[in-house]
Amino acid sequence: MSTAPRPATPMARQILEHRSLLQRAYALPGEVFFPLLFVLLGGLAATVGIGFLVVAGYLDGRWYDIRDLGNGTSHFRYWAQQQGLPPSVAYLTTALLGGIGILSLVGGWLVIGSWVERRLIAKFQIRQGPNRNGLFGLLQPIADALKLIQKEVLIPVGADRLLFFLPPILIFLPAMLGWAPIPWAAKMSYVDMNVGVVYAIAISSLGVLAVFLAGWSSNNHYALLGAMRTVAMMVSYEIPISLSLLGVVLFTGSLQLSQIVVWQQTYHIWMVILLPFAAFAFLFASTAEINRTPNDIGEAESEIVAGFHTEYSGMKAGLFLAVELGNAILVGAMMSTVFFGGYSFFGLETWIPGYLILATKIGAVYFVFVWLRGTLPRFRLDQLMSFAWKFLIPLSIIQLLVVSVESLVIAQSDLPGLATVGGSVVVNLVLTYFGVRAWANAIGYAPNEMASPPIMTNGVGGLRAAEQIRAGR
Amino acid sequence: MGPAETLFSNYIPVLLASIVGFVLVLSALIGSRLLAPFSQEREKSTTYECGMLPIRRASTNVGMRFYLYAILFVIFDVEAVFIFPWAVSFMNLGAQAYWLMVAFIAILTLGLAYAWKKGALQWR
């Protein structure tokens, strides 16, 4: 007896009817297809034209060379000097323009980012996501902002008013200042400071202060608990971040982020291949540092309402959420600059503006963050802390010692770079694989002895007290 | 350029960027102050306790383990700060600097191992 085939579920039917992009393009009506073809061919022709200009060298170093906006800045300074303006005026003008540039980058991302994040999470969870306001729901973030700005900002009873006012500002500034040393092209970084790595670590650890101020001043148990958790986690994961960046600094011999990119350009290798464990430690630790989902126990809404910003409402809560979003791409920028070759892509940066390459890499890292958020459940606080202190930190220290020997060999031996760098790659990959496995086997997963079961007290509450009360005693 | 000018050229833009960011945040807060309703009521501004009346001030005791982690953090962060200059100038210093740093890290690792052995890293 054969069972009749089950009718296809709506999901399966959708997949069956989902034709390929090429088939869809053929099926387009003529009045759409030909303009589209025209635009595509025009884009191709424009690309060829730009390619000719680049090869012929017409663009190199001119002010209209948009592959590197630093050219325009230096031309402007030169022009201002010729006009007889004092150098500080030109300097401050360019600095202010750069500051507004960073601000508009961060602000533009805050406008589009929440939509991107919600849509992506929705795709991971097989639902639609925001799709009502405007085309594809693109106006949703603006509607959210309008709603937030009209909401009343409450100040809870017993809150320390000054300390309650400060955190939204204090937490926003590091999220913006962190962009300063990131190089977007060879000459295009806001401040190409010689201590870029240390600056990035210092700026990123400023957020801890704001978090604890917010939790302490709002006179709320949940907020205080969330702040304690978040501070403990941020503080613990700062050490793996520093140690993994130290490995990179040992190879490059410079704290300047542009120099780190140039090193990766000259050796034609990305740091993630050379230092896989450092890259993993940085990725995981930075998710803890910016409170993103696998590690966001500090604001776990199932336990402690919203963590340290429970008492914030209206625009102030909006600022906290916005900073969380902005920090995600800031960390993506650090990650792609230090570990994924920054604005360079094996020679492609002479053809395409470096900042577009960097933006693509930031987008890729951000996608990984969203992917993690859509996939992993939350880790418990004790798991997170022991992962940092018993796993990441000891292994990072061992890696530091290995890497210092390798960097000495690369810098001082007469062998060709392929031999020394390639040897380091092989050694690091093998050591990472076996070292991580051996360490994980040695520590193992040892659950704590069982937490004590709930105790029924007799005096205050519990069953017997209830019976006593019921009996009228 | 002397060191003073380098400092100026490096960090004045940072100051400018922070001012620009401050202006943005402040304008958001002022905008909310202008657009949002404000009415002080005692019930509305009680702290959130899942609908119950809040008991006491919220300055609860901070768990002892947070202090342990804080002390460990200070030790290791200062360690990282010491290692950064070493890492930059490592190439020119040679083998002696390497062994000195190995000794330095070994002492700190002993400290970590001691804390681990004592159970300071165990979350209870």
Structure commentary:
The complex is a heterodimer of chains A (473) and B (124). Chain A has 19 helices and two strands. Chain A has 473 residues and is mainly alpha-helical. Chain A folds into two domains: 1-58, no CATH class; 155-450, no CATH class. In chain A, strands 1-2 form a two-stranded antiparallel sheet. In chain A, a hairpin with a 2-residue loop joins strand 1 (183-185) and strand 2 (188-189). In chain A, helix 5 packs across helix 15 (315-338), helix 5 packs parallel to helix 16 (354-375) and helix 11 (221-252) packs antiparallel against helix 14 (276-289). Chain A is globular. The model of chain A has no long low-confidence stretch (mean pLDDT 82). With 124 residues, chain B is an all-alpha fold. Chain B has two domains: 1-60, no CATH class; 61-124. Chain B has helices spanning 3-35, 64-88, 90-93, 95-118. In chain B, helix 2 (64-88) runs antiparallel to helix 4. Chain B is flat, with a radius of gyration of 25 Å. The relative contact order of chain B is 0.05. The mean pLDDT of chain B is 79. At the A-B interface, helix 5, helix 8, helix 11, helix 15 and helix 17 of A face helix 1, helix 2 and helix 4 of B.
